[in-house]
Amino acid sequence: MEKSKFVYIGSLVILTVLLVLVFYHPVATEGKYSEVQWVQLLEKGTERIIQFDIINHEQKDINYTIIVTVDEKKYTEDVLIRKGGKFTYIHHIYPERLTEGDVTFVVYKEGESLPIEEVTYCLK
């Protein structure tokens, strides 16, 4: 009888621990990363538009470099995004200026050699 009592109490302790783990979810208010969201290739009349947001979830201001390559011609923009801030990037592409039709955009975070986002479109 004494052994079953210990098993019963042990089972209750384990069940309590499991219930606490199931219902206890530490809430992280902010991540510690940067991300690119809402990447869109829009078509308006005769032009195409690349639009995306860069979001800085980190606890410090960060510089980003955006490189858009259209048929091997590079357009570079450096932006500073405040901690917790967002930057919307827009680039217009005119079809009459395209030869091959390859469009690539790459976003780098300051001090990193690997991009946080890289996307290529073939527009022809």
Automatic annotation (TrEMBL):
Organism superkingdom: Archaea
Residues spanning the membrane: 6-24
Keyword list, A-Z: Membrane, Transmembrane, Transmembrane helix
Name of this protein: DUF1616 domain-containing protein
Organism expressing this protein natively: Candidatus Argoarchaeum ethanivorans
